[in-house]
Write a structure and sequence with these properties.
The protein is built from 16 helices and eight strands. The longest helix is centred in the middle third of the chain and has 24 residues.
């Protein structure tokens, strides 16, 4: 077994030392906040003790022909992103998580994914960052692609630790951190309806599109649609907020019942306008954040076929509110789905990268507050109580001016010191 030590802080200020593949494999759900399924996970390590830094997750490409290009992109994204923060990784840990296919054993899954692990290791090495460990997790067992010693890393793999029995589990329990379940379970809350109501929702989207799209393409009509969209969204948030509290298992069903097909369609179509979406992003803190998040989740579920790509806007808003309120795992899942339905959605791209790099959402919150104050003709008030942030020290490195900067610009400026132009004009949802 490769003897190495990683000192991490995934559960607040407490420092935890992980030794060897077994403890690394067990730590993965606590690093991500959920159990990844069908995923490549890469985690940057910094310093001599291997402090955990940026991390990213991507679904494992089904075609092995894509593995070489995907490996290069992932390595560059993690390493270059860390460099932009001034913290080039000293090493990287790789996890390949996939349950065995029908008729396949865990060992066979591990061997099938070995070329992908090798391409990832090669891609990181080409950028002069070594891979400290590469693990495959499948069927409740784990394998090391880096350890050649069959005495500690046998071909049949090693059994994962029982839930709740590891040092990481104990530290997470002490800190009050819970693993949310599997990635599939978290994604299911945001995926399109597959019930009989899907056909009714499609017809409502068809009707709303025929009515609203011509208006959105007209300058005067676009302003009217924006005003109506935001007004309706606020009424829906109020309806959600004032509804009787439902059990967690029934909360999504209850929210779906509170929103009609026509109402959902009108807001979904209205959010395809970028400026309207950006104004909706201002509902990211305080008492309105929870009802906004529930609304964006409900609207994501209403983007039924053939309107799946329209979900990029509500999914990105759900990811943004989750990140702004401190729910990084929920943010990563929502933003990952947004990029799955529309890989070129600029706002989701920038938010996803910023969240994975552990940046402070306060930079963007300040930008959005400035826009809201500017429209209202108010002078911004100094923050007496600073909202929760991921890394309080990050925002002190560079100040972002408030005012008319768009959210995409604020994130890009915070990330690289320059403003990236949007992929489309102001009428685009990107």
């Amino acid at each position: 077994m490769n003897q190495h030590h990683e000192s991490s802080g995934p559960v607040g200020e407490q420092q935890i030392t992980l030794r060897g593949p077994a403890e690394l494999a067990d730590a993965l759900p606590y690093l991500m906040g959920f159990h990844p399924n069908d995923s490549v996970v890469m985690v940057a390590l910094h310093g001599g003790r291997g402090r955990f830094g940026g991390r990213l997750r991507l679904g494992i490409p089904q075609s092995p022909q894509e593995w070489a290009s995907v490996a290069e992109q992932l390595a560059e994204c993690l390493i270059k992103g860390s460099e932009r923060r001034g913290e080039r990784p000293d090493a990287i840990v790789i996890f390949l998580c996939q349950d065995p296919a029908r008729g396949e054993s865990g060992s066979q899954t591990m061997e099938r994914l070995r070329p992908l692990a090798q391409r990832l290791r090669t891609a990181c090495g080409a950028l002069d960052v070594p891979v400290l460990e590469a693990l495959c997790i499948s069927g409740g067992r784990y394998w090391s692609y880096c350890c050649p010693d069959s005495r500690c890393c046998p071909t049949e793999g090693n059994q994962m630790a029982l839930p709740g029995t590891s040092v990481m589990a104990a530290a997470a329990a002490y800190a009050g951190i819970q693993v949310r379940g599997t990635l599939r379970e978290m994604e299911a809350r945001l995926e399109p309806l597959n019930t009989g109501a899907a056909a009714d929702q499609q017809r409502a989207l068809d009707s709303a599109g025929a009515e609203l799209v011509p208006k959105i393409l007209d300058e005067a009509g676009r302003k009217d649609v924006a005003r109506e969209t935001l007004g309706l969204a606020r009424r829906l948030m109020k309806r959600i907020r004032e509804a009787p509290v439902a059990a967690p298992s029934a909360s999504d069903i209850n929210d779906d019942r509170l929103i009609s097909h026509d109402e959902a369609a009108a807001v979904i179509l209205g959010l395809q306008d970028r400026e309207t979406r950006d104004k909706a992003a201002e509902w990211m803190e305080g008492p309105e954040a929870d009802s906004a998040l529930r609304l964006w989740r409900a609207l994501s579920r209403r983007c039924v076929a053939p309107y799946e790509e329209h979900a990029a806007a509500p999914l990105t808003l759900a990811g943004w509110v989750s990140w702004s309120t401190g729910d990084e795992p929920g943010a990563r899942v929502a933003l990952g789905l947004a990029l799955r339905v529309d890989p070129g959605y600029t706002f989701a791209q920038l938010l996803h990268e910023a969240c994975n790099q552990g940046l402070d959402p306060e930079t963007l919150r300040r930008c959005l507050r400035g826009e809201r104050n500017a429209r209202a003709g108010r002078r911004p008030r100094p923050d007496r109580t600073r909202p929760r942030s991921v890394r309080p020290t990050a925002t002190r490195r560079r100040k972002t001016p408030s005012g008319s900067a768009r959210p995409e610009a604020a994130i890009s400026r915070r990330r690289s010191g320059r403003v990236s132009p949007s992929r489309r004009g102001s009428r685009s949802g990107r």
